[in-house]
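Inputs:
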Amino acid sequence: MSMLNIGTSALLTSQGSLSTTSHNISNVNTEGYSRQRALLGTQTPSFNGSNYFGSGVQITSVERVMDSFLVDQQRIYTSQESQQDTYLTFAKQADDLLGSPQLGLNTGLEEFFNAVHEVANDPTSVAAREVMLSQGEVLANRFNILDQQVLDFDSQLDSVLEGGVADINVIAQGISDLNKAIVTNTSASGGAPNDLLDQRDQLINELSAYISISTVEEGNGSLNVFVGTGQAIVTGTGSIKLSVISDNSTSPIRSKIGYGPGSIDISAQLTGGSIGGAFQVRTEVIDSARSELSTLAKSLADSVNTQNLAGVDLDGTTAASPGHLFFGDLTAVTPGEYAGAIKVVMTDSRKIAASSTTNSAIGNNENALLLADLQLSKTMAGGTQTFADSYGVLVATVATKTHQADIGQKTQEGLLNQVKLRADSVSGVNLDEEAANLIKFQQSYQAASQIITVSNTVFNSLINSF
Amino acid sequence: MRISTSYSSEQNLNVMLNQQSELGKTQLQITTGKKILSPSDDPVSAVKTLELQRQINLSQQYLDNADKAENKLSVSEGLMASSGDLIQRIRELAVQGLSDTNSAEARKAIAEEISQLNSALLGIANSTDVNGEYVFSGYETDTAAFDSTSFAYLPTSPGAGDGQRSIRVGEGFSVEINEPGSKVFVATHDVTGSQSIFETINDFVTDLNANTVGTASANGDILSNLDNGLDTLLSARTRVGTRMNAVDQQREVNDGIKFSMEKMLSQVEDLDYAEAISRLNLQMTGLQAAQQSFVKVQGLSLFNFL
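Outputs:
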């Protein structure tokens, strides 16, 4: 093999290495990019009858430096972190809402019962009665606002699901398109389309932020993606769409997730990612908060009504339903929606029945005292909690769940960052390293040029000898 | 370990963002003066805070109730004190009127004075409070206590006429804030058994006018009947006084509870400024150091030497 050929192979190889280095440098900030490396090998030696002579160098392959284990781990942690993050976002909102001194029920209950005390102190005072009516309205209004806010969270969760499904479909389409390109571009000699593989890994990573997924790679290089309990959303070069469907079993109607053309409900099977987090926070925080508020509203309205109906009003009339109902009757309201429906229906404060039926008289405050005592009577949770206790338990439950989610999210974030660091320490571009490589390959290029020059000189000295 | 260029800058940036958010939290704590910004910061303390606030509020309500009870009781007490003085004065006049040295004319003059005093006494018994409620009418606070001609106790509905309104001044402790007229101005009488003091006095006025007081009166012994009336009034006044004492004591209890609850609340939710400010300084130093080292480290590159 001639010196010129060997020199040329060295030049071309150095050029290849230099261009790989340049590619790395230019992609230093590309997300999901794995640094590439040109692997060099000797060319097949030539045999001149007695000896083997080396015949130069060649680029055997350009590979991306990556650790598929770390890539998989990163995907799993991304799902978990994103799930906790969504959970935390919503739990925190509920937590802030219930704990707010302006909106929380605590002060509302206190102020209402203070007003009842004032009626007991001065049963004939119309002013005190009017204050009790309006504090009752304020309290009912707080229930309504809390219920509305919780419903707003619920519809925000719907948006998370809708946005998530739309993005998942786009990404799944993208992955199947990349599958197609990867299958077409994988050369027979085994050279892999590194940048396409990076792009696909990046999309899969993005997908895992929405939902937990599993993948299976096929022999031809294409990748199948599954969600839930094995529902394929990418099958080679095709993709199957998820859709948002209505859950009619709840009031108000909200969204869940359907699979494929038949829109089969797979919500219960979906875990991880922002979608898994949305479903989890919906059951654990939003639904339970709404139901607790509802129970509290019903119990409060019923107790106050029952007590008021047991008395005699300022005009000496024995209280009777419906004229002497303080809060509107909730029996016709769908269970679970009492907090949104509670309201004061009494318009005439003289109908507050401060007097008891025995010894009834205008200055009798016995029934008003019993009304005020409702504040401290254990009417909730099977006779173990007062209204305020029960609200305290709700605040504590949501606060504890939020606190846990906060810790969970930080832990997952820590794990994710660690695995990212490890994956990046394998795959990420280091500019100093690339600078050193530039120098190295520049030198080898210069040396290879010298081979050409020397072979030229050698050839010239041979020619000139004639 | 090998570190990629973009990751190292991203990680440094994350550290700075975290420090900024911690700094922001400390800053918010300092501006609000509260340790707990939302319940999830410390669920246990948050719930304790709610409970403490509730108890403080309730103690405050009991204190307000105690003020109200004390007002009402002191109104009753004042009225009873004046009534006592009037009856005392009437008794002196009665003693004077009974004396045989008096002429019929003189007895008429005394009768006139006693009659005036009796009207004043009746006026007191029919007093209303600031809300226009009759003080001595039991639960029937819209009815005058005593009739101005028959002197009978008017609120006679069973139970309600003798009703005593209670006000809650402590947990499980309530105090009656009124005495019905039937227990204040109606006393034992040696002839009728029991009648209002006004009627007793009025009967005596009639006797005086008729100048029949010297003989054995069909209306009984005025002095002993007045003494009975005074006794009844005095024991009613004692009951009211005792209750005022009880209210005072309960107020001290509630004040004590409220104070200790407020102290506990402050311990649970109030910020330790010294600690928070030194933490703020530490976090600011940390952030500044991270910013400076970021700039310095980012400036390092082999490319600078190519």
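Remarks. Chain B touches chain A through 54 residues (CB under 8 Å). Chain B has two domains: 5-35+271-305, 54-263.
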